[in-house]
Amino acid sequence: MYVGQLEFFNSHAPTGLKSFASALCMASISLGNYVSSLLVSIVMKISTREDFLGWIPGNLNKGHLDRF
């Protein structure tokens, strides 16, 4: 997806704005990474209790990613 998005920005941006388009592409991907890590943190906060490890514990063999 990253390559396709970068190609789109480079092919449709004016010559003087190609570096800005590349920076915008990388910023949108980094923002998506932050949002996904925030989502995982929220899910872990909700799903973790004293007797239940949650969906994404430290030991993935004991987790239930199939329920995520």
UniProtKB/TrEMBL annotation:
**Which keywords appear in this protein's UniProt record, sorted alphabetically?**
Membrane, Transmembrane, Transmembrane helix
Q: Which superkingdom is the protein from?
A: Eukaryota
Q: Any stretches that span the bilayer, and where are they?
A: 20-43
According to UniProt, the name of this protein is Uncharacterized protein
